[in-house]
Write a structure and sequence with these properties.
- With about 190 residues, the chain is an alpha/beta fold.
- About 35% of the residues lie in helices and about 20% in strands.
- Helix 4 links the parallel strand 5 and strand 6.
- Helix 1 runs parallel beside helix 5.
C-alpha cells in the first residue's frame, strides 16, 4: 500500500455508517472497528478544517425509489425500523459536516456530493465505510471518473463477504487510487496539514 500525498483540499467521505447497518457481521473488519477508525479520521479532518461528508442510504417506505432492474440476487423488501438510516452517533451531529443522502450504491449518482466537493475546492477524497464491494467501490469508481484523487482507508471499510472485500481492495482500488491504513493516513495528514 502506498499513500503518497494528501492534497491541500482533501475531504473525508464516509459511506453508510448508519444505525441500521451497525449490527451487520462485517468481514474482515468488525463494523465497530470501522466506525472507531472512521471517527478518528473524522476528528483529525475536522481539527484541520477539512470537509467531512457523511453519506447515508435510505429509501421511501413504499420502495418506489428503489433502483429498478432485474437482478439474480433478491432485493430487500421489508420495512426498516425507525432511525435505521441515521448516521451513527460516533460520527453524527458535528457542526460543519456535510450529509448526503443516496438511494443507490454510489454516493455520486443522483446526489449533490460532487457539487458540495467542488464548491469547497476539494481535489482529493479519503474514503471509508460499508460495504466495501458495493457502496464504497461504487463511490470510488465514480470519484475516479469525476477526476478526484482518491485514498482508500482499507482498514476503515468492511463487507459482508471477505472475498468481495479482498477483490475490491486488491484488484479494483489500486486502479482508481492509493490504499492505506487509518494510521498511515493520519500520519500523512499530520505531516502535510499541520
Amino acid at each position: 500500500m502506498t499513500v503518497t500525498t494528501l492534497d491541500p483540499r482533501t475531504a473525508l467521505v464516509v459511506i453508510d455508517l448508519q444505525n441500521g447497518l451497525r449490527a451487520l457481521p462485517g468481514t474482515p473488519h468488525a463494523i465497530g472497528d470501522v466506525i472507531e477508525r472512521t471517527a478518528r479520521l473524522a476528528e483529525s479532518f475536522r481539527a484541520r478544517a477539512l470537509p467531512v461528508v457523511l453519506v447515508r442510504v435510505t429509501s421511501s417506505p413504499d420502495g418506489a425509489d428503489a433502483t429498478p432492474g432485474r437482478a439474480e440476487t433478491p432485493r430487500h423488501n421489508h420495512a426498516m425500523p425507525a432511525g435505521w438510516d441515521e448516521i451513527v452517533p460516533e460520527l453524527a451531529g458535528r457542526p460543519g459536516d456535510i450529509t448526503v443522502t443516496k438511494r443507490n450504491w454510489s454516493a455520486f449518482y443522483g446526489t449533490d456530493l460532487d457539487l458540495h466537493l467542488r464548491r469547497r475546492g476539494v481535489t482529493q477524497i479519503v474514503l471509508t465505510g460499508v460495504a466495501t464491494s458495493i457502496g464504497v467501490e461504487s463511490t470510488a469508481r465514480a470519484a475516479h471518473e469525476h477526476g478526484y484523487h482518491l485514498t482508500l482507508a482499507t482498514d476503515a471499510m468492511t463487507d459482508l463477504d471477505a472475498d468481495a472485500h479482498r477483490h475490491s481492495t486488491e484488484k479494483i482500488f489500486p486502479r482508481v487510487g492509493e490504499r492505506g491504513t487509518t494510521d498511515e493516513i493520519l500520519e500523512l495528514l499530520a505531516k502535510t496539514h499541520a
